[in-house]
């Protein structure tokens, strides 16, 4: 698998583990068979058989250029799962999207990756599209900085060993309460992120606004940090209300 892939987890059921490997590879970005083999390390025949099988169950789909991408059944399955953070976020994200006019997301850290657990996009115009379930490495981007800033000890040091930011940057993010980036995760994309806390005040996710640098500027925090922090606070209040 590629250098940005998640650490391999095995269940002991070979075909299941390989199928999950295919799903994770396609979640990184749409890919054709050659790219799928490169990302997974699977033989062409195996990768093709698994991808076609997942496609038949609508867990994968193909675009006009023939590349596989996450299928609609993944969203349908995810929608039935109880995730208090996602449910609270979906009550808050529409307003944040309306205020900013940009794409908005919620990320949660899983090991050395961050996964998008909720996302909404503006209805028109150029946008930063991040489908739910997308995984990014924790080495770049404002959401990665926020999640790393509130990660402690050896885990944080391990994340910093492969990141474009350092300990001093994380200290400043903790002091300021939010992070921003421009062109770190993807060329031409800017973002600003803030921590989402649970009822006890522990950081459990990051909320982000992202879009083209040409529109958001290279310092998007100057425009959107206050609105982002208000949205994060609204999510925390909803989580607290759900526990009472």
Multimeric organization? single chain
Helix content: 40-55%
Summed over residues and divided by their number, the pLDDT gives a mean of 88
Distance between the first and last residues' Cα: 44 Å
Number of helices: 10
Order of helices and strands: HHHEEHHEEEHHHEEEHH
Which structural class fits the helix and strand makeup? alpha+beta
Name the CATH superfamily assignment of the largest domain: GAF domain
Task: Kindly estimate the percentage of residues that lie in beta strands according to DSSP.
Answer: 15-25%
Radius of gyration: 18 Å
Tell me the number of structural domains. 2
Named CATH topology of the largest domain: Beta-Lactamase
Largest sheet: 6 strands, antiparallel
The order of strands across the largest sheet is 5-4-3-8-7-6
InterPro entries: GAF-like_dom_sf, HTH_MetabolicPath_Reg, Tscrpt_reg_IclR_C, Tscrpt_reg_IclR_N, WH-like_DNA-bd_sf, WH_DNA-bd_sf
Protein name: Helix-turn-helix domain-containing protein
Keywords: DNA-binding, Transcription, Transcription regulation
Question: Could you characterize what this model shows?
Answer:
By secondary structure, the chain is of the alpha+beta class. The protein folds into two domains: 14-74, Winged helix-like DNA-binding domain superfamily/Winged helix DNA-binding domain (Arc Repressor Mutant, subunit A, Orthogonal Bundle), CATH 1.10.10.10; 82-243, GAF domain (Beta-Lactamase, 2-Layer Sandwich), CATH 3.30.450.40. It has ten helices and eight strands. It has helices at residues 14-28, 33-40, 44-56, 72-79, 84-100, 142-149, 153-160, 167-176, 213-216, 221-243; strands at residues 60-62, 68-70, 103-110, 113-120, 135-137, 179-182, 189-197, 203-212. The strands form two sheets. The chain has a six-stranded antiparallel beta sheet with strand order 5-4-3-8-7-6, with helices on both faces. Strands 1-2 form a two-stranded antiparallel sheet. Strand 1 (60-62) and strand 2 (68-70) form a beta hairpin. Helix 1 (14-28) packs across helix 3 (44-56), helix 5 packs antiparallel against helix 10 (221-243) and helix 6 (142-149) packs across helix 8. The model is unreliable at 1-7 (pLDDT under 50). Keywords: DNA-binding, Transcription, Transcription regulation.
